[in-house]
């Protein structure tokens, strides 16, 4: 369900792309250092955005390091980490673990259940570290599963269940920015859920799986209709973002919010941070 919060690299300056890749690499290294190779497998572009966003907002100390990795063994590249990149890594594992366990419970998906069991020790440690967030994610997944099982026809409600999950993840402090971060995460979550549903419509129709657009009973959802719904979600998310006093890397974040999130909707598959393809 993740992987939609991408930069549109054609519109980025060279230094901006280098900066984005440094934070992406930083998240990857955090996952490897804290959770090993199995944790690194859960690397998520959406959480890289969160690490970059929170670092830009709170302006903590950022450590820089030139390193090599399996993807780039011949050349050293810049990696940036902060306390918020490490927070994003924790949330990356927590979301992956909870989703894998939920998929097993709902559909007995053996592959995801197996990966979830591999992450079990790491996931339980993060649940102890962030009990309220873990409870909120589990609550959100339970509501989402119930809505999908009942073939919920209310698109806004079912998308809001996933919005609640992302809302909890976006907030890491109780301070003056909590409200805007919460709102931003909520509408990002709704956007991610709905754009994923739009992409999966044909497969879900064929496999007779739940899809909010198919269940809504509003007839055929054209690309234009889907765009208008998704645009409303991102409009609200961007309003919350613009109220945050962000200066550092603001153009990178705007590139993602106003352009990058539409890459896959328009079947544009730009090069990702590690030089491969997003899909």
Report the order of strands and helices: HHEEHHHHHHHHHH
Helix residue percentage: 55-70%
Strand order of the largest sheet: 1-2
In the CATH scheme, the class would be Mainly Alpha
Mean model confidence by pLDDT: 85
- Given helix and strand content, the structural type is mainly alpha
Rg, alpha carbons: 18 Å
What spatial form do the alpha-carbon principal axes imply?
Answer: globular
| Unreliable residue stretches | 268-279
> How many domains is the backbone divided into?
1
CATH architecture heading:
Orthogonal Bundle
The largest β sheet comes out as: 2 strands, antiparallel
Share of β-strand residues: under 5%
Number of strands: 2
What's the CATH superfamily, by name?
Farnesyl Diphosphate Synthase
Topology:
Blueprint: H1 14-40, H2 45-58, E1 63-67, E2 77-81, H3 83-107, H4 110-118, H5 120-129, H6 131-149, H7 155-170, H8 178-199, H9 201-207, H10 212-215, H11 223-242, H12 250-258
Antiparallel strand pairs: 1-2
Can you tell me about this structure?
This protein is mainly α and 279 residues long. The protein has one domain (9-61, 81-212, 220-262): Farnesyl Diphosphate Synthase, CATH 1.10.600. 65% of the residues lie in helices and 4% in strands. It has 12 helices and 2 strands. It has helices spanning 14-40, 45-58, 83-107, 110-118, 120-129, 131-149, 155-170, 178-199, 201-207, 212-215, 223-242, 250-258; strands at residues 63-67, 77-81. A two-stranded antiparallel ribbon has the order 1-2. α3 crosses α4. The protein is globular, with a radius of gyration of 18 Å. The model is unreliable at 268-279 (pLDDT under 50).
């Amino acid at each position: 369900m993740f992987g939609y919060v991408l930069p549109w690299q054609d519109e980025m300056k060279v230094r901006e792309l280098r900066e984005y890749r440094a934070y992406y690499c930083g998240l990857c290294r955090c996952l490897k250092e804290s959770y090993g190779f199995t944790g690194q497998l859960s690397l998520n572009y959406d959480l890289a955005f969160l690490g970059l966003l929170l670092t830009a907002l709170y302006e903590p100390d950022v450590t820089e390091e030139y390193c090599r990795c399996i993807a780039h063994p011949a050349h050293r590249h810049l990696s940036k980490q902060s306390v918020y990149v490490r927070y994003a890594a924790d949330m990356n594992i927590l979301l992956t673990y909870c989703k894998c366990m939920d998929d097993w419970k709902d559909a007995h998906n053996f592959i995801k259940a197996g990966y979830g069991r591999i992450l079990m020790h790491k996931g339980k440690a993060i649940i102890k570290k962030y009990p309220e967030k873990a409870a909120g994610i589990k609550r959100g997944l339970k509501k989402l599963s119930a809505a999908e099982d009942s073939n919920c026809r209310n698109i806004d409600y079912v998308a809001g269940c996933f919005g609640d999950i992302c809302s909890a993840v976006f907030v890491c402090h109780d301070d003056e920015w909590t409200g805007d971060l919460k709102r931003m995460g909520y509408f990002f979550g709704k956007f991610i859920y709905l754009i994923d549903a739009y992409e999966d419509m044909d497969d879900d129709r064929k496999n007779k799986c739940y899809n909010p657009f198919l269940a809504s009973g509003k007839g055929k959802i054209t690309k234009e209709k889907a765009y208008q719904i998704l645009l409303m979600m991102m409009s609200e998310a961007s309003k919350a973002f613009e109220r945050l006093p962000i200066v550092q890397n603001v153009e990178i974040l705007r590139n993602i919010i106003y352009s990058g999130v539409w890459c896959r909707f328009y079947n544009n598959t730009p090069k990702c941070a590690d030089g491969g393809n997003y899909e």
